[in-house]
Amino acid sequence: MNLPSDYEQEMKELLGTELEAYKKSLDLPVMQGLRVNTAKITCEEFEAITPFSMEKIPWIPNGYFLKEEERASRHPYYFAGLYYLQEPSAMTPASRLPVEPGDCVLDLCAAPGGKATELGGRLMGQGMLLANDISSSRAKALLKNLEMAGIPNVYVTSEDPEVLERNFTSFFDKVLIDAPCSGEGMFHREPRMMEYWKERGPEAYVPVQKKLILQGARMLRGGGMLLYSTCTFSRKEDEEVIEYLLQEMPDMRLKEILPYEGFAKGAGLEKCVRIFPHRMPGEGHFLALLEKSGEDSRPGQENLRTGKRKAPKLPDCAEEFLSLLSYPIDRENLKLDRDRLYLLPGRVEVPKLRFLRTGLYLGDVKKNRFEPSQALAMALKPEEFVSCIRLEPEDVRTVKYLKGETLDVSDLPVEKQKGWQLICVRDYPLGFGKLAGGILKNKYYAGWRWQ
């Protein structure tokens, strides 16, 4: 691979005698990755049913090297949200931010969702994830990935981080900033990035990165943690951004990152981590974990954490459908917005923002009937719905369902012979359908259909 001469000189200064090993690594095959969604299935359970050729990624608890990415994106288990396809090194930032159930978490630059889906999954339905991307088109892809992963306690926004900072000062327990960058660590995977680098080098991104990290730190509560990451090698975009934060906000301090033998120390900041493709299988990455000192006070934000709500009056059709669920619903957290019904995350009250989603979208009230959403199906377990139809992944009807076709399921056992059914591949939901006389009317969301 022919590298830009200016870039090669910078890497020589950074790597010294390791430069040739780095250059040779760029001619190796690109590594593909699969990360198991542990909110839906354990790694052991997935290993028992996977049809793919996989090998464990040693530094990612739920990550695997994958040899057949195209096949993995065309399997019913993918549509069931059991895994996310992600480059191995890109799995690292979310794995090193210690998110716990009940946390309020911000992913500030979240699209397309590789890191947000992992953070949301680790919340296990408790607390709240705010996933934001300033680009509306990218935020739509983010929303789909979060809903496919079955993350219920999520707000998805497309806001300028400045607006978020005004509304969420000293609020979040954990913040992740995977900052836009010059992408030097992706030259191997996407060689066209070199042309972009020539047009817009590291200097073009530094002002944005410095602004983002300050905004993210200000939204962090006392005692909270922030993880900053990029997929570039430039010290200007990596260590110098961290040094700038530490200078501007003395209440922030670097923390040790859970180690791995292939990690390299930061250039001048040894607690930071660099991932080089000649030291470990994957692309280039930079990570820094920081903690904010002080007590958890959240000045002026008490209403965001303890807001009281009044249970809304629901139409009879919505009440009738909810009676089919054994999914835990706090009725005070229900919100009927025009004809759309949502289940909001906990008692967190949020201001008016440019939302793409507020909590778990349950469905629509249409005249005298209720139509459940695709998002609800993906958040359920089979035992949480009154009646399920289970299909095997090899059954031709599984793909037909994902294509939106009507199915004859008269040979399959069902708990309820008529009405709404949760359609599953084995024990993993795909969507809804409506059964009558052994024929299933397909309700799989048109925008997600198998093409």
Automatic annotation (TrEMBL):
GO molecular function annotations of the record: methyltransferase activity
Record: residues binding S-adenosyl-L-methionine: C109, A110, A111, P112, G113, G114, K115, D133, D160, D178
Keywords annotated in UniProt: Cytoplasm, Methyltransferase, RNA-binding, S-adenosyl-L-methionine, Transferase
Protein's recorded name: RsmB/NOP family class I SAM-dependent RNA methyltransferase
Keyword Cell membrane annotated: no
Residue ranges annotated for the SAM-dependent MTase RsmB/NOP-type domain, each copy included: 22-293
Family: Belongs to the class I-like SAM-binding methyltransferase superfamily. RsmB/NOP family.
Entries under Pfam families matching the protein: Methyltr_RsmB-F (PF01189), Methyltr_RsmF_N (PF17125), Methyltranf_PUA (PF13636), RsmF_methylt_CI (PF17126)
InterPro entries found in the cross-reference section: Methyltr_RsmF_N, MeTrfase_RsmB-F_NOP2_cat, MeTrfase_RsmB-F_NOP2_dom, Nol1_Nop2_Fmu_2, RCMT, RsmB/NOL1/NOP2-like_CS, RsmF_methylt_CI, SAM-dependent_MTases_sf
E.C. numbers: 2.1.1.-
UniProt organism field: Blautia caccae
